Amino acid sequence: MTRRSTAFATAFLLAAGLYAATGAYAQKADDAFGVWLNPENGSNIEMYKCGDLLCAKILKVKDGQKTDDKNPDAAKRTQPIEGLVIMADGKKSGDNKWQGSLYNRENGKTYSGTITVKSKEAIDLSGCVAAVLCRTVTWTRVK
Fold this sequence. Notes:
The protein has one helix at residues 3-21; strands at residues 34-37, 44-50, 53-60, 85-94, 97-104, 109-119, 122-128, 134-141. It is mainly beta. The protein has a single domain, classed as Lipocalin (Beta Barrel), CATH 2.40.128. The chain has an eight-stranded antiparallel barrel with strand order 1-2-3-4-5-6-7-8. Strand 7 and strand 8 (134-141) form a beta hairpin. The longest helix is centred in the first third of the chain and has 19 residues, at 3-21. The protein is globular, with a radius of gyration of 20 Å.
């Protein structure tokens, strides 16, 4: 082996080792299914299959909100927060993305939302009022 081919082989092996060490893999939209922690209020949200769609519901809250008291529909303000479906129309919009409507129990508003799988342990949840007024929060998987 020549010096040049040895250097190339070494560089290739180092790059391959670095790739493997970082745990890099192709994120998949289906990696969104499971239970996630919302870091802003400590609630646990389950994302699950509902037909070909992604649905999400609140499993547990830590901030004391017991009912959907901010709901714009007065008839729904007494429904419990735990078990509340906050997304029922998530459609796969890419290899690692879902898009649909997200209900925010804290203010009773519904936003256009995107869930992007960053890794098996993290997703980005983005909610938008208009295409230019968006906010993104990273959620982590509950173990």
